[in-house]
Amino acid sequence: MNTDPIADYLTRIRNAANAGLRVVDIPASNLKKEITKILFDQGYILSYKFEENKIQDNIKIALKYDKETKQSIIKKIQRISKPGLRKYANATEMPRVLNGLGIAIVSTSKGVMTNKKAVQENVGGEVLCYVY
């Protein structure tokens, strides 16, 4: 049993990017699906596919790399709110990642969204992770 499935999700992506893998398989959950959609919309991953199995659904994520340098687009992906210490921010205190160049993924009452969208919607929530 995994005590922090979101940290496991982020670690699998980080490890696959560091190893230069094109595709990574991750066990699915609704929260992980929403985070994957955000990463795709923000241009951090190439594509994704949700696969349904009888036992456990999977997410196949195709990672994105720079054409010239062959480096991963995701420089850092870091878990912020942990099971032992939750981090919350309201709309006025929303974190800026890398001076606005990165994103923070936030779980709000209106769903999972980026920090910029949370400020536009004027909602706060749990800061799940930083990506840049």
Describe this structure in words.
The chain is of the alpha+beta class and 132 residues long. Helices cover 26% and strands 30% of the residues. The strands form two sheets. Strands 4, 5, 6, 7 and 8 form a five-stranded antiparallel beta sheet that branches. It has a three-stranded antiparallel beta sheet with strand order 1-3-2, with helices on one face. The protein is globular. The two termini are 29 Å apart. 29% of the residues are buried.
In short:
With 132 residues, the chain is α+β, with helices and mostly antiparallel strands.
Topology overview:
Layout: H1 5-19, E1 23-27, H2 30-41, E2 45-51, E3 58-63, E4 77-79, E5 88-89, E6 103-108, E7 111-114, H3 115-121, E8 125-131
Antiparallel strand pairs: 1-3, 2-3, 4-8, 5-8, 6-7, 6-8
Based on the model shown, name its key terms:
30% strand, 132 residues, alpha+beta, 26% helix
Which range does the strand content fall in? 25-35%
Helix-strand topology string: HEHEEEEEEHE
Mean model confidence by pLDDT: 96
Anisotropy-based shape: globular
Biggest sheet statistics? 5 strands, antiparallel
Structural class: alpha+beta
How much helix, percentage-wise, in residues?
A: 25-40%
In DSSP terms, counting alpha (H) and pi (I) runs of 4 or more, how many helices?
3
Query: What is the rounded Rg?
Result: 15 Å
Total beta strands: 8
Report the uncertain regions: none
Ends: how far apart? 29 Å
